[in-house]
Design a protein that fits this description.
Pfam families: Hydrolase_3 (PF08282). This is Haloacid dehalogenase. One of its GO terms (molecular function) is magnesium ion binding. One of its GO terms (cellular component) is cytosol. The structure is a single chain. The chain has 270 residues and is α/β, with parallel strands linked by helices. The protein folds into 2 domains: 150 residues, HAD superfamily/HAD-like (Rossmann fold); 101 residues, Hypothetical Protein, Haloacid Dehalogenase-like Hydrolase, Chain: A, domain 2. Helix content is 33%, strand content 23%. It is built from 10 helices and 14 strands. The strands form 3 sheets. A 6-stranded mixed beta sheet has the order 8-7-6-9-11-10, covered by helices on one side. Helix 2 runs parallel beside helix 10. The longest helix is centred in the middle third of the chain and has 15 residues.
Length: 270
C-alpha cells in the first residue's frame, strides 16, 4: 500500500552517516539529496551534543528536529531547544562514582557545556575535533548536578566499558538509560532519552506509523530505534548484535555504506 511506503529515514551519526574520519562523504550528501527529492524526510540522532551536529545541517539541508544526547534533547536547526530530558540531580554523583569505580574517565554534559576531568584525557582531543568545540575542566562532579543531559564513561578498555555499563544498569535500573555509543564510550541519560524514543517522537511529529520509518545504525543503542521502525539497516562495521537485529546489512561507513543503504533499501521502498 502507498500508505506503507518509507517516509522518513532516521540515521545514527558516528559509525553510520560519517566515515571513520568523522567526515560526510560526497556520496552521503548525494544520498540525502535523493531522499529529499523522493519526498522522504531525513533525521539524525546521536550521543553527541546538538552543537556537535551543527556541521551536518547545511550540507544535508536538515529540516527535522535534531536529537542530541540520544534523544535527551531536541533542537531546531538554529539550535533553539524544543524539549529536553535531564538526569535527576541526586543521581549525577552516584552515577559518576560507579563509572569511576571501573577506572573510566567521567565526562558531564550540563546545559550547553561539556566538562572533563583532564584536558589531556583519553579521547578528549579527538572528541573536540569531532564536535568542533572544546570542553571545560571540572574539579568535582558534585559541582555539576543540575540540568545534566548526559554522563559519559570513557576508556579504551572495552571490557571495562561493558562492565561499567552493566554496573550502572544493575544499580540504577529504569531510572536511567545506559548503553555504549562507541566501544570506548558509555552513555548515561534520562530513562526516556534513548534512540527508541527518538523514533517515537518523530513518528508523532509527522504522523507516521513504524512501517513508514527506516532506521540505520551500528551500535547496540541503535537497536532501540530498530524496534520502532519497519525497515532496519545495520552498517557493515556494526556490532554483531546490531546486524542480528536488523533486516538488512549494508557496507561499512568507510565504504559509503550509508549511501549504498539509501540506494538499495530505502529509495526502492519510498
Amino acid at each position: 500500500m502507498a500508505t506503507d511506503r518509507i517516509r522518513l529515514l532516521l540515521a545514527d551519526v558516528d559509525g553510520t552517516l560519517v566515515d571513520q574520519q568523522k567526515q560526510l562523504t560526497d556520496a552521503a550528501v548525494d544520498a540525502v539529496r535523493k531522499l529529499h527529492d523522493a519526498d522522504v524526510l531525513f533525521a539524525v540522532t546521536s550521543g553527541r551534543p546538538p552543537k556537535g551536529m551543527a556541521m551536518l545541517i547545511d550540507p544535508l539541508d536538515l529540516k527535522t528536529p535534531i536529537a542530541g544526547f540520544n534523544g535527551g534533547i531536541f533542537v531546531k536547526r538554529d539550535m533553539s531547544v524544543i524539549e529536553q530530558k535531564v538526569l535527576p540531580d541526586d543521581l549525577v554523583v552516584p552515577i559518576a562514582e560507579v563509572i569511576s569505580s571501573h577506572d573510566l574517565d567521567v565526562w558531564i554534559y550540563q546545559g550547553a557545556d561539556w566538562y572533563v576531568p583532564d584536558m589531556d584525557g583519553s579521547h578528549v582531543d579527538r572528541e573536540s575535533k569531532t564536535v568542533q568545540f572544546k570542553p571545560k575542566v571540572m574539579k568535582d562532579a558534585k559541582d555539576h548536578t543540575e540540568s545534566v543531559a548526559k554522563i559519559v564513561g570513557v576508556s579504551d578498555d572495552h571490557d571495562a566499558v561493558k562492565a561499567a555499563t552493566q554496573a550502572v544498569q544493575d544499580r540504577f535500573g529504569d531510572r536511567v538509560a545506559a548503553s555504549p555509543s562507541q566501544p570506548y564510550y558509555l552513555d548515561v541519560t534520562h530513562p526516556e532519552a534513548d534512540k527508541g524514543s527518538v523514533a517515537k517522537y518523530l513518528a508523532a511529529q509527522y504522523q507516521l506509523t513504524p512501517e513508514q520509518i527506516a532506521t540505520i545504525g551500528d551500535m547496540p543503542n541503535d537497536i532501540l530505534m530498530f524496534e520502532h521502525s519497519g525497515l532496519t539497516i545495520a552498517m557493515g562495521n556494526a556490532d554483531e548484535k546490531v546486524k542480528a537485529a536488523a533486516k538488512e546489512v549494508t557496507d561499512s561507513n568507510d565504504n559509503d555504506g550509508f549511501a549504498k543503504a539509501v540506494e538499495r533499501f530505502v529509495l526502492p521502498e519510498a
